[in-house]
Amino acid sequence: MPWENKKFNDGNSIPGIGFGTWKIPVGETTTGQVDQAISVGFSHIDTAQAYRNEAEAGKAIRESGLPREDIFVTTKYSGLGGLDIETSIKDSLNKLNLTYVDLYLIHHPKLAVPDIPTAWARMEALKERGLVKSIGVSNFTVKDVEILLASAKIPPAVNQIMLQPYNYAEQASLLEFSAKHGIVIEAYSPLLPLTQYPGGPVDKPVKAAATRLGGVPEEQVLLAWAKAKGAVVLTTSSKKARLEGYINAGDLVLTKEEIQAIDGAGAKGPPGCTFSMFSASKNSGSTARKLIYRTGSLALLAGLVLTMRVYFGVGMDIM
Ligand SMILES: NC(=O)c1ccc[n+]([C@@H]2O[C@H](COP(=O)([O-])OP(=O)(O)OC[C@H]3O[C@@H](n4cnc5c(N)ncnc54)[C@H](OP(=O)(O)O)[C@@H]3O)[C@@H](O)[C@H]2O)c1
Fold this sequence. Notes:
With 319 residues, the protein is of the alpha/beta class. The protein has helices at 28-40, 54-63, 85-96, 116-128, 142-151, 168-180, 192-195, 203-212, 218-228, 240-248, 256-267, 274-279, 287-312; strands spanning 6-7, 13-14, 17-20, 44-46, 72-77, 101-106, 132-138, 158-162, 184-188, 232-235. Helix 8 (203-212) runs antiparallel to helix 11 (256-267). This is NADP-dependent oxidoreductase domain-containing protein.
């Protein structure tokens, strides 16, 4: 049975794969893409205040004609416009044109203002009032979750984090901690080795598994890998055929050896690991080269900051 539902610690359940709406250009495109995803079998849609496409996603959900309980909708508190949590969820529900969402997340620990315990108590109040069925967090570290759990009445149902072979080693302790506390991990950007780091060490074991599985596309192997780590998988595509493949990937089972080979390759890091490349400047001896390396490092850092600001929305100041 592909992409089995996962049970939350509050008794609700979440479909094992979700269609994400980040990066879809604002406007009708989101409606078309969510509609396409639902038509191929996705029943779990992930959006956020920061994506500025909740209204378009909601339109596709309504137009699907599916009963509300047959579709799982997540949105996130992204601190957009400096709005508080309660105002934000009401605003999101208005935009989605829904009376509740299935899952509401604090998008990033830096958005938990004035502090994690206070922000979490506000999330708990939303669940108690029925505006959201389940509550969770995103991009929280073990330390952030520990702070939250120390005063929580309701533990988070999920932690939505980046999980792909190149960051698995650094996320492994969070995965273990989450399993111990009954917190479901949602893996976003599982296809990063293909989208950002083609040509890296992970390609070889992924290709080998794809061949062994009868020549399936490599992205399906990466989705199967994330599933094997026990995560709910969040992905996206503008292409219908690829989306159908994602759904089929729920049937793929990687061997223990294949998973170990992908983990091992991921631990080597992505190709041209930028920070270690720039750290070589310490021994370069040339002032001009040092200057180039430093300028490169600054440009890289600025790029990362810009990406985060674009992702969360220009109005937010989390950096
Ligand atoms: N909570 C957070 O902070 C956070 C952060 C990031 C993402 N997310 C959520 O997670 C969702 C998924 O994130 P993501 O977009 O980073 O996921 P992803 O699954 O890693 O990447 C999806 C992209 O991969 C491309 N792709 C698929 N197969 C490929 C291949 N063989 N070669 C090259 N490209 C390929 C697709 O392009 P095509 O359209 O061409 O198929 C699509 O744009 C987001 O939409 C969002 O809902 C949450």
